[in-house]
Amino acid sequence: MNKIPPYLQAGDTIGILCTARYVDIEQLQPAIKLFESWGLKVKLGSTIGVEWNIFGGDDTLRAQNLTDFFNDPDVKAIVCARGGYGTVRMIDSVDFSGLLANPKWLVGFSDVTILHSHINSMYEIPTLHASMPVIIDNKTPEAIDSLKKALFGDELAYTFNNSSPYNRYGEIEGEIVGGNLSLIHTIQNTVSELYMYDKILFIEEVGEWMYNLDRMMWNLKRSGKLQNIRGLIVGSFTELQDNEIPFGLSYEEIIWEKVKDYDFPVCFNFPAGHIADNRAIKLGHKATLRIGDTISFWQE
Question: Where along the chain is the active site annotated (predicted)?
Answer without folding.
Answer: 110, 204, 274
